[in-house]
Amino acid sequence: MINIPGVISQEKGLKSELLLVKGLTVDFETFDKKIEVLKDVSLKIERGEVVTIVGESGSGKSTLAQAIIGVLDTPPAFVKRGEIYFDGVRIFPTDGKRVKFRGTGINMVFQEPLVSLNPVYTIRKQLLEAAEIGGIPEKGGEREKVIKNTLTELMIRDVERVLNSYPHQLSGGMRQRAAIAMAVIQRPKLVILDEPTTGLDLIVQRKIMGLLLNLRREINTSLLIITHDLAVAANMADRIYVMYAGRIVESGTRGDIIKDPLHPYSLMLRDSVPTGYKESGPLKVTEGAPPDMSALPTGCPFHPRCPNVMDICRKNVPPLKNIGDVREVACWLYEK
Ligand code: SF4
To answer: Whose Cα sits closest to atom 5 in ligand 1?
Structure first.
């Protein structure tokens, strides 16, 4: 888990959103070419809101999360353009003005939990430290109680064994739950979770989702959940962003995206998962594969897979347009 970012600039941003990303564009530079892996990505998260970013592997979701918390590997990744504001303060670019940013800002749970955990400390030591940062008093063994309760809520039965273990002594699923516990115990304003339920069985997934939603209810924590699984979004999100080939191609409320997706890619994702919203009939298989980001097709990057493709789609990239107050779509079908 990482607390963002140790340092931020003092410049004031917009007040209303907890997180605001504007026009973020990221390149991967190799020795012989530049690959644009994020293109003009803008999103916002209100206080206490649950937002999911949905898309297949390689769509740029994890890169976006890493850019937000400032842990992109540079090189090869370079942020070319864009601004990021958190809690009213611009955190990127920082213009060299740096101040210490303590404690309960943004925590991230990485897809690989070993990134979030320190290999040389036991889980107990790491969780107690997180509880201290979260302001839980030591008096009366309160921190020990809180960490045990949190692990129990995450359906860890053998709590003592897990607390006394080092990360490498735990299974992947246990490590994932320990990393989630560390993130939530600190009671941050925003938790970013990258594929938080991958590799966990359905019952544990449900329990973790419930714990995260409780956190939102109790202390108004916002959640940004990155997932390839639209079912996770259908169960948790207030709003959903759909990403394809490094771009946002649709955004809207959960009802918008799950019940009435506009973009053909959103429709393809929706119809391939058992959300309960699909009209009758068998689930569909997602046709084709995400594009090679170093050789994107001309025009709309989805056009080789799109059942509605038109001539214009092969030539021109559709802009992301507002359709109503909180809905956007990038597709020539809605241009008029
Ligand atoms: Fe399909 Fe064209 Fe819309 Fe792209 S712009 S999603 S190819 S209809």
So the answer is: 331
Range of the structural domain that residue 65 is part of: 17-105+188-273+292-334
Residue with tokens 């053909």: 264
Q: How many domains does the chain have?
A: 1
**Sheet strands (E) in 195-334:** 222-227, 239-244, 247-253, 321-322, 328-329
- Indicate if ligand 1 lies below 6 Å from the C-beta of 318: yes
Q: Are 154 and 206 in contact (CB under 8 A)?
A: no
Please check whether residue 157 lies inside any domain of the structure.
Answer: no
pLDDT digit string (tens) for 174-230? 888 899 899 888 888 999 999 887 767 777 778 788 878 887 888 788 999 999 888
Which amino acid appears at position 75 of this protein? Answer: P
Residue nearest to atom 3 of ligand 1 (CA): 331
Residue 162 lies in a domain: no
How many Å lie between the centroid of ligand 1 and the Cα of residue 79? 27
Ligand 1 pocket residue status of 302, Cβ below 6 Å? yes
Is 217 inside a domain boundary? yes
314 Cα nearest atom in ligand 1: 7
With b for 16 or more beta-carbon neighbours within 10 A and e for fewer, the 72-94 pattern comes to beeeebebeebbbbbbebbbbeb
Kindly state if the Cβ of 300 falls inside 6 Å of ligand 1: yes
Q: What is the CATH number of the domain that holds 98?
A: 3.40.50.300
pTM of the model: 0.87
- Note whether residue 316 is domain-resident: yes
